[in-house]
Amino acid sequence: MDFLFLAEAASGQAEQNPMGTVIMLGFWVLVFVILYFVMIRPQRKKQQEEDALRNSVEVGDDITTIGGIVGKVIAVRDDDETIVIETGSDKARIRFKKWAIRSIDTPDKQVVVETKKDKKKDKNDKNGNKETGEVEETEE
Q1: Which of 12, 16, 22, 96 has an alpha carbon within 20 to 30 A of 45's alpha carbon?
Q2: CATH number of this structure's domain 58-106, picked from the four choices 1.10.3470, 1.20.120, 3.40.50, 2.30.30
C-alpha cells in the first residue's frame, strides 16, 4: 500500500516539473556512457588482444597455459580449436583448447596488435619524427 502511494506521488511530481525528468534522464545516460568507457570498452580491447595472441600460436612455440602448464606446441588444430603440447623430459603430450593459453614464452615471438593510431603514425612519419616532421639525415 505504501508503495502505491509513493508511485502516485512520484508521477504527480513528474507532471509538475518536466525539466526534472529530462535532467534525470540525462543523468542516467551520462552514467551509462561513463560505464561503457570505464568498463566495457577496455574489456573488449583486452579480449581482442588475447584472441590475437591465441590465433598466432604456431608449432614450435613455448607456451604457458592458464593452469600453469609449460610446454612446446607440436600441433595446432584449427577445426576444433585445440593445440597439442609436449611437456617435460618424458615428452608427455597434452591437448588443450586454444582459450587455455595464457602466454607465448618464445623469446623471438611478440604479438603486436596494430591500432588505428599506430597505423596513422606510420603513414604520417616513417622516420619516427612525429613532433617536427623533420627527416633524419643518414650518412652513407
Answers
A1: 96
A2: 2.30.30
Provide CB contacts within 8 A for 18, sequence distance 6+. none
Which letter, b or e, does each residue of 4-35 get, where b requires 16 or more Cβ atoms within 10 Å of its Cβ?
A: eeeeeeeeeeeeeeeeeeeeeeeeeeeeeeee
What is the chain's pLDDT, residue by residue, as a tens digit (140 residues)?
Answer: 555 555 565 555 545 677 888 899 999 999 999 999 999 999 999 999 999 999 999 999 999 999 999 999 999 998 899 999 999 888 899 999 999 999 998 877 654 434 444 555 555 555 555 444 444 444 54
Q: Taking a C-beta distance cutoff of 8 angstroms, is the pair 83, 98 a contact?
A: yes
Provide the residue type at 46 as one letter.
K
- Check: pTM over 0.70? Answer yes or no: no
